[in-house]
Design goal:
Number of strands: 0
Structural class: mainly alpha
Oligomer: single chain
Number of helices: 7
Distance between the termini: 51 Å
Shape: elongated
Radius of gyration: 24 Å
Helix content: 40-55%
Length: about 160
């Protein structure tokens, strides 16, 4: 396998894991200057080395942040993450909402009531009714999933 293919596959893997450094050229630390073990495209490695350099008193926080192309607040966030979760804390969390934040208990109860009244409303019609009543646009499939969760949990959303 050629060197460029290895780089391309690693870059793709870093992008998939959301750990690709968007500004690898900003990493000025001498350890990252030559190809080898350190890769300025790997944000987890960059953040770890930044924290390690400052904590081992090889550089001040400001200098370490500058050497690694990051800000002081980024340094402190990385240090907290490293202390709290280890290396895994340096991997960014998945973006987006963690739960069905639009489909509150009140909204799901409303949809359940409409579904049970015998009119046989489709999920799309339920989503439209929710939008009209609560001013919240939700996808029909989200309504289906919320109703399924509520029926599994005995009516709790």
């Amino acid at each position: 396998m050629t060197r460029s293919r290895v780089r391309d596959s690693k870059e793709a893997a870093l992008a998939r894991s959301r750990t690709l450094n968007p500004r690898p050229e900003a990493v000025l630390d001498e350890g990252f200057a030559e190809p080898g073990f350190f890769d300025p495209r790997d944000m987890v490695q960059v953040k770890y080395e930044m924290v390690r350099k400052a904590r081992s008193r090889q550089a001040s926080v400001s200098q370490a942040a500058a050497d690694f192309g990051l800000s002081r607040p980024s340094f402190y966030a990385a240090a907290r993450a490293l202390d709290g979760e280890g290396l895994a804390g340096l991997v960014p969390a998945r973006p987006g909402p963690r739960r069905a934040h639009k489909l509150t208990g009140e909204v799901v109860a409303f949809a359940e009531a409409l579904k049970q009244d015998g009119t046989g409303l489709s999920s799309r019609a339920l989503a439209d009714a929710i939008a009209e009543r609560f001013g919240v646009r939700v996808h029909a499939r989200s309504v289906e999933r919320a109703l399924a969760r509520a029926s599994k949990s005995g009516g709790r959303p």
